[in-house]
Amino acid sequence: MASTSTLVGPKPVSAARILTSSGFGLLFDSFDVGLLSYVLVSLSKDWHLSTTVTGLIGSVSSIGMAVGSAFAGSLADKFGRRNIFLFTLLIYSIATGLSAFAAGIGIFCVLRFFVGLGLGGELPVATTYVLESSPEKVRGRRVVFLEMFWAFGSLVAALVSFFVIPHSGWRVVFLLGAIPALYTIVLRFALPETPKYARLEQRPSMGTALRQVWKKGIARRSVVTWILWFVRHPLHT
User: At what angle do helices 81-99 and 105-132 cross, to 10 degrees?
Assistant: First the structure.
Protein backbone atom coordinates (compact mmCIF):
# COMPACT_ATOMS: atom_id res chain seq x y z
CA MET A 1 0.00 0.00 0.00
CA ALA A 2 1.40 3.37 -0.94
CA SER A 3 2.04 5.60 2.05
CA THR A 4 1.85 8.84 0.11
CA SER A 5 -0.63 11.49 1.13
CA THR A 6 -3.54 12.57 -1.00
CA LEU A 7 -4.89 16.08 -1.18
CA VAL A 8 -8.45 15.80 0.10
CA GLY A 9 -9.94 19.16 0.92
CA PRO A 10 -7.59 21.82 2.31
CA LYS A 11 -5.13 19.37 3.91
CA PRO A 12 -3.32 16.25 2.66
CA VAL A 13 -4.79 13.06 4.06
CA SER A 14 -2.73 9.90 4.37
CA ALA A 15 -3.60 6.81 2.36
CA ALA A 16 -3.80 4.84 5.61
CA ARG A 17 -6.51 7.13 6.99
CA ILE A 18 -8.53 6.98 3.76
CA LEU A 19 -8.37 3.19 3.63
CA THR A 20 -8.93 2.42 7.30
CA SER A 21 -11.74 4.93 7.74
CA SER A 22 -13.57 3.72 4.65
CA GLY A 23 -12.56 0.10 5.22
CA PHE A 24 -14.09 -0.11 8.67
CA GLY A 25 -17.36 0.96 7.08
CA LEU A 26 -17.13 -2.07 4.78
CA LEU A 27 -16.11 -4.26 7.71
CA PHE A 28 -19.23 -3.27 9.64
CA ASP A 29 -21.36 -3.89 6.55
CA SER A 30 -19.89 -7.35 6.05
CA PHE A 31 -20.33 -8.03 9.75
CA ASP A 32 -24.06 -7.33 9.51
CA VAL A 33 -24.51 -9.38 6.34
CA GLY A 34 -22.73 -12.36 7.87
CA LEU A 35 -24.53 -11.89 11.15
CA LEU A 36 -27.96 -12.42 9.65
CA SER A 37 -27.19 -15.92 8.42
CA TYR A 38 -26.17 -16.99 11.92
CA VAL A 39 -28.98 -15.14 13.69
CA LEU A 40 -31.69 -16.67 11.50
CA VAL A 41 -30.84 -20.13 12.82
CA SER A 42 -31.49 -19.01 16.38
CA LEU A 43 -34.37 -16.71 15.44
CA SER A 44 -36.25 -19.42 13.55
CA LYS A 45 -36.15 -21.61 16.66
CA ASP A 46 -37.28 -18.85 19.05
CA TRP A 47 -40.11 -17.63 16.82
CA HIS A 48 -40.86 -21.00 15.15
CA LEU A 49 -40.35 -19.60 11.67
CA SER A 50 -40.80 -21.62 8.51
CA THR A 51 -38.19 -21.69 5.77
CA THR A 52 -40.50 -19.49 3.68
CA VAL A 53 -40.49 -16.77 6.32
CA THR A 54 -36.73 -16.90 6.81
CA GLY A 55 -36.33 -16.59 3.06
CA LEU A 56 -38.68 -13.60 3.13
CA ILE A 57 -36.44 -11.88 5.67
CA GLY A 58 -33.48 -12.22 3.35
CA SER A 59 -35.56 -11.00 0.41
CA VAL A 60 -36.66 -7.89 2.31
CA SER A 61 -33.02 -7.10 3.05
CA SER A 62 -32.17 -7.54 -0.63
CA ILE A 63 -34.98 -5.20 -1.70
CA GLY A 64 -33.71 -2.54 0.70
CA MET A 65 -30.21 -3.10 -0.63
CA ALA A 66 -31.39 -2.59 -4.22
CA VAL A 67 -33.21 0.63 -3.34
CA GLY A 68 -30.25 1.94 -1.37
CA SER A 69 -27.75 1.26 -4.12
CA ALA A 70 -30.07 2.80 -6.73
CA PHE A 71 -30.36 6.15 -5.00
CA ALA A 72 -27.15 6.48 -2.99
CA GLY A 73 -25.04 7.38 -6.02
CA SER A 74 -27.40 10.18 -7.04
CA LEU A 75 -27.55 11.46 -3.47
CA ALA A 76 -23.76 11.36 -3.28
CA ASP A 77 -23.58 13.49 -6.43
CA LYS A 78 -25.93 15.98 -4.82
CA PHE A 79 -24.78 16.07 -1.19
CA GLY A 80 -21.24 14.69 -1.28
CA ARG A 81 -19.56 11.31 -0.95
CA ARG A 82 -18.61 11.70 2.70
CA ASN A 83 -22.05 12.90 3.82
CA ILE A 84 -23.89 10.00 2.17
CA PHE A 85 -21.27 7.54 3.41
CA LEU A 86 -21.92 8.69 6.98
CA PHE A 87 -25.70 8.84 6.49
CA THR A 88 -26.04 5.31 5.09
CA LEU A 89 -23.71 3.92 7.75
CA LEU A 90 -25.87 5.57 10.40
CA ILE A 91 -29.11 4.20 8.91
CA TYR A 92 -28.04 0.58 8.84
CA SER A 93 -26.31 0.63 12.24
CA ILE A 94 -29.32 2.17 13.99
CA ALA A 95 -31.71 -0.25 12.25
CA THR A 96 -29.46 -3.14 13.27
CA GLY A 97 -29.43 -2.01 16.89
CA LEU A 98 -33.22 -1.59 16.93
CA SER A 99 -33.59 -5.13 15.58
CA ALA A 100 -32.50 -6.34 19.02
CA PHE A 101 -35.81 -5.04 20.42
CA ALA A 102 -38.09 -6.43 17.68
CA ALA A 103 -41.07 -8.21 19.23
CA GLY A 104 -42.39 -9.82 16.06
CA ILE A 105 -41.60 -10.74 12.50
CA GLY A 106 -43.39 -7.70 11.04
CA ILE A 107 -41.27 -5.01 12.69
CA PHE A 108 -38.19 -7.18 12.23
CA CYS A 109 -38.74 -7.22 8.45
CA VAL A 110 -39.24 -3.46 8.38
CA LEU A 111 -35.96 -2.96 10.23
CA ARG A 112 -34.19 -5.39 7.90
CA PHE A 113 -35.38 -3.31 4.96
CA PHE A 114 -33.70 -0.25 6.46
CA VAL A 115 -30.59 -2.27 7.21
CA GLY A 116 -30.45 -3.26 3.54
CA LEU A 117 -31.17 0.33 2.52
CA GLY A 118 -28.15 1.61 4.41
CA LEU A 119 -25.98 -1.32 3.42
CA GLY A 120 -26.79 -1.01 -0.28
CA GLY A 121 -26.06 2.70 -0.21
CA GLU A 122 -22.87 2.60 1.82
CA LEU A 123 -20.91 0.02 -0.16
CA PRO A 124 -20.69 1.80 -3.55
CA VAL A 125 -20.25 5.21 -1.97
CA ALA A 126 -17.32 4.01 0.16
CA THR A 127 -15.63 2.60 -2.94
CA THR A 128 -16.24 5.84 -4.82
CA TYR A 129 -14.76 7.78 -1.93
CA VAL A 130 -11.51 5.79 -2.07
CA LEU A 131 -11.33 6.02 -5.86
CA GLU A 132 -11.80 9.78 -5.95
CA SER A 133 -9.40 10.33 -3.04
CA SER A 134 -6.55 8.34 -4.60
CA PRO A 135 -4.01 9.20 -7.33
CA GLU A 136 -4.71 7.39 -10.57
CA LYS A 137 -1.62 5.19 -10.39
CA VAL A 138 -2.61 3.62 -7.05
CA ARG A 139 -6.42 3.59 -7.30
CA GLY A 140 -6.73 -0.08 -8.22
CA ARG A 141 -4.36 -1.14 -5.48
CA ARG A 142 -6.22 0.84 -2.84
CA VAL A 143 -9.61 -0.55 -3.85
CA VAL A 144 -8.20 -4.07 -3.51
CA PHE A 145 -7.01 -3.25 0.00
CA LEU A 146 -10.43 -1.74 0.71
CA GLU A 147 -12.19 -4.96 -0.29
CA MET A 148 -10.04 -6.90 2.18
CA PHE A 149 -12.09 -5.36 4.99
CA TRP A 150 -15.15 -7.23 3.70
CA ALA A 151 -13.44 -10.54 4.42
CA PHE A 152 -12.44 -9.37 7.90
CA GLY A 153 -16.05 -8.38 8.62
CA SER A 154 -17.28 -11.87 7.71
CA LEU A 155 -14.71 -13.36 10.05
CA VAL A 156 -15.76 -11.06 12.90
CA ALA A 157 -19.41 -12.01 12.35
CA ALA A 158 -18.56 -15.70 12.58
CA LEU A 159 -16.52 -15.25 15.76
CA VAL A 160 -19.09 -13.04 17.48
CA SER A 161 -21.92 -15.40 16.56
CA PHE A 162 -19.98 -18.43 17.76
CA PHE A 163 -19.12 -16.95 21.15
CA VAL A 164 -22.11 -14.68 21.85
CA ILE A 165 -25.29 -16.28 20.48
CA PRO A 166 -25.06 -19.57 22.46
CA HIS A 167 -24.57 -17.69 25.75
CA SER A 168 -26.36 -14.34 25.33
CA GLY A 169 -28.79 -14.81 22.46
CA TRP A 170 -29.27 -13.16 19.07
CA ARG A 171 -30.50 -9.84 20.46
CA VAL A 172 -27.10 -9.07 21.96
CA VAL A 173 -25.28 -9.47 18.66
CA PHE A 174 -27.67 -6.99 17.04
CA LEU A 175 -26.83 -4.53 19.80
CA LEU A 176 -23.18 -4.99 18.90
CA GLY A 177 -24.16 -4.22 15.32
CA ALA A 178 -25.17 -0.72 16.42
CA ILE A 179 -21.55 0.19 17.20
CA PRO A 180 -21.02 1.76 13.73
CA ALA A 181 -23.41 4.55 14.79
CA LEU A 182 -20.70 5.70 17.17
CA TYR A 183 -18.07 5.24 14.46
CA THR A 184 -19.78 7.90 12.33
CA ILE A 185 -18.69 10.47 14.92
CA VAL A 186 -15.07 9.50 14.27
CA LEU A 187 -15.56 9.58 10.50
CA ARG A 188 -17.19 13.01 10.70
CA PHE A 189 -13.82 14.47 11.67
CA ALA A 190 -11.47 11.96 10.02
CA LEU A 191 -12.80 12.13 6.45
CA PRO A 192 -13.02 15.33 4.42
CA GLU A 193 -14.80 15.46 1.07
CA THR A 194 -13.12 14.00 -2.01
CA PRO A 195 -11.13 16.38 -4.26
CA LYS A 196 -13.28 15.61 -7.31
CA TYR A 197 -16.53 16.46 -5.56
CA ALA A 198 -15.02 19.51 -3.87
CA ARG A 199 -14.06 20.89 -7.30
CA LEU A 200 -17.56 20.57 -8.74
CA GLU A 201 -18.97 24.01 -9.45
CA GLN A 202 -22.53 22.75 -9.87
CA ARG A 203 -24.14 19.85 -8.01
CA PRO A 204 -26.40 17.76 -10.26
CA SER A 205 -29.95 17.07 -9.15
CA MET A 206 -31.02 13.50 -8.38
CA GLY A 207 -33.10 13.42 -11.54
CA THR A 208 -30.16 14.52 -13.67
CA ALA A 209 -27.85 11.98 -12.03
CA LEU A 210 -30.32 9.12 -12.60
CA ARG A 211 -30.82 10.10 -16.23
CA GLN A 212 -27.07 10.12 -16.79
CA VAL A 213 -26.75 6.56 -15.44
CA TRP A 214 -29.51 5.24 -17.70
CA LYS A 215 -28.90 7.30 -20.84
CA LYS A 216 -28.15 5.67 -24.18
CA GLY A 217 -24.69 4.13 -24.28
CA ILE A 218 -24.43 3.92 -20.48
CA ALA A 219 -27.51 1.89 -19.46
CA ARG A 220 -26.04 -1.47 -20.49
CA ARG A 221 -22.90 -0.88 -18.44
CA SER A 222 -25.03 0.19 -15.48
CA VAL A 223 -27.02 -3.06 -15.60
CA VAL A 224 -23.87 -5.20 -15.84
CA THR A 225 -22.25 -3.29 -12.97
CA TRP A 226 -25.34 -3.80 -10.80
CA ILE A 227 -25.35 -7.54 -11.47
CA LEU A 228 -21.66 -7.90 -10.68
CA TRP A 229 -22.02 -5.85 -7.53
CA PHE A 230 -24.87 -7.97 -6.15
CA VAL A 231 -23.00 -11.18 -6.99
CA ARG A 232 -19.94 -9.93 -5.08
CA HIS A 233 -21.91 -8.72 -2.04
CA PRO A 234 -24.80 -11.13 -1.51
CA LEU A 235 -26.98 -11.17 1.57
CA HIS A 236 -26.64 -14.63 3.12
CA THR A 237 -29.72 -16.36 4.39
Answer: 150
